[in-house]
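Readers of this paper often ask what the protein records in our data store actually look like. Below, we set out a record of this kind in full and without editing:
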Amino acid sequence: MANNEESRGLKSLFDWFANRRKSGSTSLERQEREIADGLWHKCSKCGVLAYTKDLKANQMVCVECGHHNRVDSDERIRQLIDNNTWKPLDEHLRPTDPLEFRDRKLYSDRLRETQDKIGLIDAVRTGLGQINSLPIALGVMDFRFMGGSMGSVVGERLTRMIEQATQRRYPVVIICTSGGARMQEGMLSLMQMAKISAALQRHKDARLLYIPVLTNPTTGGVTASFAMLGDIILAEPKATIGFAGRRVIEQTLREKLPENFQTAEDLLQHGFVDDIVPRTQLKNTLTQLIALHQPVLTTPHMVLWETMSLTSTAAE
C-alpha cells in the first residue's frame, strides 16, 4: 500500500515537472512570438529586452550597453534630414547583368528577388536635403541589399550626387556600410572606385566639404576608395572597418590578430579616422562641422565697403 502511494507521489511529481517544463516552453514560444512580431527587441550584445518603440526613439542604440544596431537607409534619412526637405536623386537607375553572371543562381534573379524583398532598386540612396536647415547632399548605403555591395548603379548614383553637390556648392556626406565591390559585376564594379574618387577630387578642388561616416561594417573596395577620402572621417562606435577580412589576414600572416583589430576605436588610435561619434549625436555633429566649413560670403564685406564709401562721400 505504501509502495503504491509512494509510486503515485513520484508519478505526480514527474507530472508536475513535465507540466512546468511544458508551460515554460510555452511561455518561451510566446516570448519569441512577441519578439518576432516586432514589439520587443533583444540586444545582441547585452541580451536586454527593449521595447522597439523606445529603441527607435533612441535611434536603434541600446540604452543599456550602447550597442549600435544596424539600421536601413529609410531610418538613416529620417534621423539626419529635416522633415519635408529630402529630394531623392536618380531613382530611375537600375542594375543590369552585362556579364550574365551565375553562381548558385542567376545574378538577374538575385537582383529581382532582393528588390522585391526589401523594396530598393540598389544598395545606395542619394538625394539633396537639409540638416538643421543647412543644405546637404547625402548618400546612404543599405547593407540589406546584397551586403551593401558596390555595383555600377551604386557608383553612378554617388558620382552624380557628388557632381550635383559640386555644382550647387553643397557639402557631401556619405553613410558607408558595405561588404565591398560586387563580384557579380567584375571589373565594372571595380571601376566605380576610380569614378567616385575622381568626382570627389573635383569636389575638393572646388574647396567644398566631404564627410564619410563609417558604420558597421565598412570593408573592401568602399574602404579602399571613397570611405577614406573624406576631409573629416567619422565612425560609429565599435564599427568594423577594414579592407580584407580578419580571417583572411590571419591565414595570410599566420598570426593571431588583437581583439580590437579593425574596430573604429583601433583606427582612431592609429589616425585612420578623425572621431568616433555615437549615432544619437551624429546629426548635431554634422551640423556643427558643416556650419564651420561654410564658404566665406563676400556680401558683408561688400556692404561694409559701400557704407565706408558713402560715409566718405558725405564727409566731402
Summary: The mean pLDDT is 87.
